[in-house]
Amino acid sequence: INMKEDKLIEYLFPSKKKRKSTSESLEDKQKYDARLLAFLSSNKLDATLYRRILLQMPTKIIPRMANPLLLADFLTSSYETQNNASKILALHGLYVLLTQYNLEYPFFFGKLYALLTVDLFSAKYKARFFYLLDIFLQSSHLPANLVASFAKRLARLALLIPQHDQCLIITFIYNLIV
């Protein structure tokens, strides 16, 4: 990464020390949105930087934006096309957009259900995934058959995964049933 890109990355993801003020004007936020979207649409993102962006999306990037819904396309494409680690990180950003900015995401639970595979248990961010899954499935507005289908899928996975993960899954299934 050259010097110009280093400055852009520092602008997009400022460290806590260098951040001057917590409140920015609408014009500053709109400039930030434009630069961020231009950066994300460039083909200069390697896998490490891509994951770093997804990791910082819910806490550092979305709060600084004037219109966070502009990230919906980036996050949904990340969620649908990347590896398990990136999918989990994109899921966290999508969660923020769904809950705080009223993003409509059709077939969200179907795609979430499809993530439940044996490969998930070797993913780097599986603890974050189960934290988010727990939040998603705790809603009292979900139909009982949807929650039951997740419990059934998890029970089937419990037969195929290592023992140390089985304890987590059994506890998770118990919480879903309760």
UniProtKB/TrEMBL annotation:
Pfam families recorded: CBF
Residue stretches making up the CCAAT-binding factor domain: 88-177
GO annotations of cellular component type: Noc4p-Nop14p complex; small-subunit processome
InterPro entries with a match to the protein in the record: CCAAT-binding_factor, Noc4
Coiled-coil segments: none
Biological process (GO), any one: ribosome biogenesis
Similarity field: Belongs to the CBF/MAK21 family.
Name this polypeptide is given: CCAAT-binding factor domain-containing protein
Organism: Adineta ricciae
